[in-house]
Write a structure and sequence with these properties.
The protein is of the alpha/beta class and 590 residues long. The chain is built from 20 helices and twelve strands. Helix 2 (32-63) packs antiparallel against helix 3, helix 3 (69-118) packs parallel to helix 11 and helix 15 (454-463) packs across helix 17 (490-503).
Length: 590
């Protein structure tokens, strides 16, 4: 069966390392005071609980035979007080670690999301969005318990184990040796299972990621799925991915659960050996109270070991998730402010490309030594065949990608040396596929400039005639928009995006197939708004319908990594070159 991108797992054979766990200590240290207090409370609670068998032994061996009822009453009260205080302290510990866990979730997720805001387009282009989302939501949730409870539990269980051994040695050193005799076998099993456990939980992480990615894309593309009657095929793919996730989780759980029954069985064997081997075979002297106390300690001794094995399983799972989280955090921010970056002054509008060379990969050049100058306020149309580099030119001007060679300046300022915010905040970009957010119509338009007044917002909508359909809507500008603008037509979404661009009041305007989804009548209205918007602004317009760019001050034909010809519409038609041929071919299609 042919594999698709959702069947592909990420690397499973990276060497085991604690580096991801060490990095997580950055978040743990921020809550060090609370965690230390929680640990102290747990230690006191454990000590109080371990004192109960000692009081029980004293009562059985000495107090009851002596019929000392006052001492028996005192021991009963002390036992009750120890239990109550330990329960109170454990409740405090649970409340504190839960609070810290939620704080850690918030901090990791916030850092992760902040970093994702700076990642380049290539990061999102090369990965299914579901694989990205599962890291922000599910994986962060999964690691929080270990980073708050798990680390404390690990330390506490080790200390608890030491305390139990101390109490056992104080009760009977010889019987203590019987209790700890099973440890070597336990460690052999643990170290044998460790590599398989880690690989199995990494595989679970991969399969869940694949399943989540396919589910997210299927939901987003449900309309296309039903149009092409692909439901049964999609169900087949989803069923296969779900089955792979099920098998991976089942196998990981099977390996993880091998430890718990082993610990339970060995604890029962040791419990029996305590009496049979210790007393009957080795003839170790022991009173009834001592045997009761040591039996209790033996049972308690294997509890922290069992818990440590469970923490280890959680640790294996969490390491797999931390790898994915920190892998995203380690993605390089390719486009970022230079250390000495300065604020771009208010843009006047002169744009220069000087020997610009660029390719999306090392083997292919889209632009080669491209040079041109645009004067302030000039409207420039970019035309040419698909893939020639028209959109690449405006992407480079907005610095969505860095150059392989050459330089781009605005008003003499190298755009690689100014801050991204000061550059992009003065540019308005209208794309062919305009994204509409969930919220109200007003929210989507105000996205261009949050400080805009309602009147400014309405004026922007009137310029592109978006107010006509907005005022007819049930709640006008407060009308709720469904996810991805599901309750709007493509043309309405584009008009809202137009208004959003206008309200940002850009100094440089970029229109990339901006009227492609608008009907001819509405396009005529919008063209008036565009002409109004272009006044005094440098603008770059990409359009396949050449009738929309006839009035531009300058038309550049992009071809073979450069500009084959440029001029006004009349000048290019007189040349009878590439533009002339393209224009006439469109006339023949009408």
């Amino acid at each position: 069966m042919q594999r698709n991108k959702y069947d592909i797992d990420e690397t499973l054979d990276s060497p085991f390392s604690l580096k991801h766990l060490k990095r997580s200590f950055v978040y743990i240290r921020r809550h060090g005071k609370k965690l230390i207090l929680s640990m102290i409370a747990s230690l006191i609670a454990s000590t109080l609980q371990l004192s109960v068998p000692q009081m029980l032994q004293h009562a059985i061996d000495y107090t009851v035979p002596a019929k000392n009822y006052k001492e028996l009453a005192l021991l009963t009260v002390c036992t009750a007080v120890a239990i109550v205080i330990s329960l109170f302290l454990m409740r405090y510990r649970m409340w504190t670690t839960t609070e810290v866990g939620q704080d850690i979730i918030y901090e990791i997720r916030d850092d992760l999301f902040r970093h994702m805001q700076k990642l380049p387009f290539t990061y999102y282009d090369n990965r299914p969005h579901g694989k990205i989302l599962i890291r922000v939501v599910q994986y962060v949730n999964s690691v929080s318990n270990l980073l708050s409870n798990g680390i404390i539990d690990f330390v506490l269980e080790l200390l608890n184990l030491i305390l139990i051994v101390v109490f056992m040695l104080a009760t009977s050193p010889q019987l203590t040796l019987v209790v700890v005799a099973g440890l070597p076998v336990f460690f052999i099993i643990m170290f044998t299972l460790k590599p398989a456990q880690r690989r199995s939980w990494q595989r679970v992480s991969n399969k869940n990621s694949n399943l989540n990615s396919y589910a997210a894309e299927s939901v987003n593309g449900m309309r296309i799925t039903q149009i092409f009657a692909r439901e049964s095929k999609n169900e087949e793919i989803f069923e296969r991915l779900a089955m792979l996730a099920r098998k991976a989780h089942f196998k990981a759980g099977l390996i993880a659960n091998l430890v718990n029954p082993f610990v339970e069985n060995i604890s029962q064997i040791i419990f029996g050996a305590l009496y049979f081997v210790g007393v009957l075979v080795l003839k170790i002297p022991a009173s009834f109270g001592m045997l009761m106390a040591m039996g209790n300690y033996s049972w308690r001794f294997w509890q922290p070991i069992n818990r440590l094995s469970q923490i280890y399983n959680e640790f294996m799972t969490t390491i797999a998730y931390l790898e994915r989280i920190f892998e995203t955090m380690d993605e390089k921010v390719v486009i970022d402010d230079a250390p000495d970056a300065f604020e771009m002054p208010q843009i006047n509008g002169e744009v220069k490309f000087e020997n610009v060379t660029f390719g999306y990969d090392a083997n292919t050049r889209v632009l080669e030594n491209l040079t041109f100058t645009v004067t302030p306020g000039q409207s420039v149309a970019l035309v040419g065949p698909t893939g020639a580099g028209k959109t690449t030119i405006v992407n480079l001007l907005s610095r969505f990608y860095d150059l392989n060679g050459g330089k781009i300046t605005i008003d003499g300022n190298d755009i690689s040396k100014v801050t991204l915010h000061s550059l992009r905040s003065q540019m308005g970009i209208m794309l062919q596929d305009s994204f509409i957010f969930s919220g109200t119509i007003e929210d989507n338009i105000r996205y261009g400039r949050l400080s805009a007044s309602r009147q400014e917002l309405m004026d922007a909508c009137k310029v592109v005639h978006a107010d006509e359909f907005i005022t007819r809507a049930e709640n006008g500008y407060e009308t709720k928009i469904k996810e991805h603008g599901g309750n709007l037509s493509q043309g309405q979404k584009q008009l809202i995006a137009f208004a959003r661009t206008i309200i940002s009041d850009p100094r440089i305007l970029i229109l990339d197939e901006a009227t492609s989804a608008i009907d001819t009548k509405t396009e005529a209205y919008v063209q008036e708004g565009i002409n109004h918007l272009l006044g005094g602004r440098t603008s770059f317009i990409i359009a396949h319908r050449l009738s929309t760019i006839r009035e531009c001050d300058r038309i550049m034909y992009v071809k073979d990594g450069g500009i084959s010809e440029q001029g006004t519409h009349d000048e290019l038609m007189a040349k009878k070159g590439d533009y002339y041929a393209l224009y006439n071919s469109q006339l023949q299609e009408l």
